[in-house]
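On clarity, I found the account of how folds are encoded harder to follow than it need be. Since the whole study asks how a given chain folds, the encoding of that fold should be made plain. For illustration, here is how one protein appears when written out as sequence plus structure tokens:
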Amino acid sequence: MYIIGLFFASLFVLSSGAQAKPTHQCNTRASNQLYVSGQGAGELARSRILAAVTQPESDINLYTRLGEPLKATPYTFVYLESWMMVLVMDPFQDLTEMIDAIRTDPLVASLGVSYVGDNLGVCFATSPPPQTQNVTEYHNTLLNHYFLSSSIEENAFIDSGGAGPGWVKTGESFLAFVPDDCARTVNVFRFYGPGPNSHFYTADPKECGGLRTQESGWNAESIAFGGILPENGQCPDHSGFVPPLYAPLYRLYNNRWMFNDSNHRYTIRIDIYEQMINKGWVGEGVALCVRNGR
């Protein structure tokens, strides 16, 4: 039997920054950048932060206190007599929690850092609908597991047999959103469970944070796609579009945890949702809101 997660993990796995101590919840924003800045030339601060990020072993203490950034880019504003560093963080890490920790860190403050914040960007009052990406459902006839692929490359790999035997398209798909802060579309995080050999998707920041603990048995893989969080189990409709812009994505659970065979299925079709419940799967309601239409 092939372990589908091993290939996908190697294809989409986060870089070394993913080893940072997990934040209590996952990032609710599309951006994974934060800024540290200070007054003056900031030569010492810029050089030390840059060295710590590019060569963590040279200053592991500072690297850890900065939340183990994946990348650092320095800027100097001569006329403003100030400097800034753009830090690219693990996209799973909650920016708010990291910013609070860095702001109150005495070592960071001693370098002359006077500001720590994120990139909120500029959003216009009237923005176009968020961009979409196609998500394709697969079913493994040997495992009776379902899987969602969100890229053409991944589809081709599965179709060629690279993920192992038994994987076939179900004919079901949906349009997810590209994560975008201005469009209020959030990250959908993908996890792999080596025990049940299964994947799990969630946009819930607290659920995601819980899955990143060692005790969960699940490995963080990637941001699979984006969506809108439901409100009280319903998809919000603030767009004014007719028909509504958003459609519910339902989540089902096979309830086979006792056999170490957990698997979830996601569908936009209420008839499939009800059919799976009749087959013994547990209906978990609306997990996400996606684009209305396929």
Remarks:
- The longest strand covers residues 167-177.
- The two ends are 33 Å apart (CA to CA).
